Amino acid sequence: MTTGAYSLVDTALRAGVEVCFANPGTTEMPIVVALDRLAGIRVVLGLFEGVCTGAADGWARMTGRPASTLVHLGPGLANGLANLHNARRARTPVVNWIGDHATRHRAFDAPLTSDIAALTGSVGWTRTITSAREMAEASLDAVEAALGPPGRVASLIIPADCQWEPGPEPLSSRPSPSLRETPSSAPREAARLLRGGRGGILLGGTALTELGLHAAARVAAATGCGVWTETFPARQECGRHVPGFPALPYFPEQACEALANVTSLVLAGAREPVAFFAYPGRPSRLAPGGATLHTLADPDAGVDAALALAALAQELDAPAAAGPPRAMAAFAPSGRPLDPDSLGRAMAAFTPEAAIVVNEAATTGLVWSAVHASTAAPHTMLGLTGGAIGQGLPTALGAALACPDRRVIAFQADGSGLYTLQALWSMARESADVTVVVCANRRYRILQIELERAGIAEPGPKALALTDLTRPVIDWTALAKGFGMPACSVRTDGELADALVRALAERGPSLIEAVLA
Amino acid sequence: MTTGAYSLVDTALRAGVEVCFANPGTTEMPIVVALDRLAGIRVVLGLFEGVCTGAADGWARMTGRPASTLVHLGPGLANGLANLHNARRARTPVVNWIGDHATRHRAFDAPLTSDIAALTGSVGWTRTITSAREMAEASLDAVEAALGPPGRVASLIIPADCQWEPGPEPLSSRPSPSLRETPSSAPREAARLLRGGRGGILLGGTALTELGLHAAARVAAATGCGVWTETFPARQECGRHVPGFPALPYFPEQACEALANVTSLVLAGAREPVAFFAYPGRPSRLAPGGATLHTLADPDAGVDAALALAALAQELDAPAAAGPPRAMAAFAPSGRPLDPDSLGRAMAAFTPEAAIVVNEAATTGLVWSAVHASTAAPHTMLGLTGGAIGQGLPTALGAALACPDRRVIAFQADGSGLYTLQALWSMARESADVTVVVCANRRYRILQIELERAGIAEPGPKALALTDLTRPVIDWTALAKGFGMPACSVRTDGELADALVRALAERGPSLIEAVLA
Q1: What is the ipTM of this complex?
Q2: A164:B280 CB<8 A
């Protein structure tokens, strides 16, 4: 029998949804049965819904195709919401299937009843299904909504009876929308502004592909403009083979200083730069007050920034960018305790070609992006787009399953990693090729910096306790073992190098706890 | 200087908020500073917000006073939302302090911006602060909203500038509302109905106190009516010293069968019983179609069900309930592999007097409630009210800190426990007297039952994978060690008894992994 659940899943499969990151409950059982019976869609269990949504984000960032998630009513969705927030900010296509009580049951306000649409609405597109007859059409609708462009989070709220009742024939359609071209006036105007001198370009979205980065370098060489990348990009090509532009600094005073001399700022796949947080007496806008802002490629309109930059380079008659790849950084272990710099040097020396580096390493990760990533072998970097920590390990899982021929390095802050550490188990279960490097500084370092910035020179015991992750020390090797993953702990750059070589020589996941001094 | 943050925290402290379960970020730094400087309010760090909200629920269930939480913008709140859903269903007073971007910064849609009020609205009362001048009055407003009656989740959305700008003098008011009395007509009508024969009473809320349970027993003795307790009570007195009524069964066909002969059902602190989930061809309402439902004490109106039952007993001239406490169940270890029954017998034998048993043991916990809890020493049971799993460990943490002179037993299903296992670290850090008993059946047993009920006699590999927690086996002793907690693993009832005796003899937390056959 074709149930509504079959109609839903089969339509999604035909539309190109090849994986479901799932943590279902009773109200999703008919979808579980459909997933079970339909070949061609992979099912991955997460022990917590934040693992599922973050993995879907990672999958889709690497493939451009939406992954689905399957979660249990409002509370299940709530547990996955933080990583959906990150996916929204990354403009990643994600399709959520959220079971709900049977339509006739909702009025009784059973214990698990809640306002699911209020939650899904906060992260993107929502459709609430009311009849099994809708199930095929709604499924395709969600995939199309997710693909955009721009990509977005699309949620279907699916009452249990709409799953178990007879459903329609699945639809056979595979939407493959392309990014849009920017209007031809936009590169012309950008060229005019940059020729005027003291210009700058901020890169985001597809401007951070190899094509986009090389085009930006040509524009910079032709006009002398400054180029910055978004502070927290969704996906960026990095390494010795591409131009290494500085990221716009995280702290607003540093970002304002970087942009201080810019009189016109061209936005290529990025929005106007604004402070991550407001501070007393500091502006929210990071570009100087008098500067002209010009949108070369609007990411919220699904415009291809790489093509727009290429058009801009052509408009400028910019010659092809010069220069061979940068030399590989030599690595000689110092034997000293690890700090963010020596950790980054060791990582850069041993990051394998074509790796995917998921960077949720917080303060250590900012040093990596600023200094070391550009000296490493060619790799793809996935960033924490929405500031909702706990994205790194799940996204690494999803990226690894999407790209089984590439090594994933989960470059992970310890505080953030503890949000969704359950991802380690799914990595072990799926034999995902993920090398987890936990930067264990055993504190919320960014908050200690923020306390200093707030003028708290000598925090008392309660403020210190809120930023300190010792008492007791967290043993990541034991946590990894608990989830079935081999692990080791290192304290020097030489030990880290050895551990990386060992980990990268083997298939499947392992974890390196890099204890920072 | 009195900042808005000081006004907020000091007012809450004077209103009786003695603890803050916190996971703050940059937008909450002024509140962190205020917590740091104000003596009298305890601050407990959770590594994940679901730990904070669940702990606040546990604290408030035991004290009747609200705990506060401090979380970071929309994503931080989202991570705590599932346990706030449970608190809402428990009618627990909880006050959430949620930092937001500075008022002038919101328009810029910085990465962490989201619709926080949409989320808080789904679990209760919300107020969005717009000026530091409001901070004292809003703080008191939230405490009053949380206290009710009935208790509820009250959320303040607090822009960073309202925290750091000068605030008003704190208010000095300590609201202590009492539960309401039921109208005098309600016990009269209940008496009339129950005298008619074939009556039943469903107990919830304060009907599950010692006073309420004894009154219910008097009513039952006088009228011959049936008595059931809510399936998932917020708080219930249990043990040999109180009448042991059956819980209304979880599965609707069993619940309907239990109530089949009832012609009038008196609701004492409980709502009309409805199925936890709908199933094809089964009713949502559990009482027979023709039965009269009578509300003796409406929990949503904050009515005291224990007093109402006492009034009902008086109305019936019911004599004092007879009988001494039940005898203690003898325990002799069988030496056989653990199953839910032998596990429950060992637990019942060694549960110490005045323990708090937090029951999130799912299928194993249902056996405990039905069979073993009434044979144990007098104890208080806290249940999973909203079905959002991951409540047990955090609630155990909060209950232990609220009641430092009582032992907490976190009776925990393994699948549910993995949702918020980070609570183990806070237990270790705070030296909380919690004995965690993980019922490790290594599967989502309830979902395997639901697959059977859905007619899936032979699930395929994908459906099996979604209900199976082996591949790899999760090692709870390693997870506990990772979070700094001593742990052991047991496989027989004798080993469990020995482990319980050892654990209960020492202060501070420890974990027992009880592997079920």
Answers
A1: 0.97
A2: yes
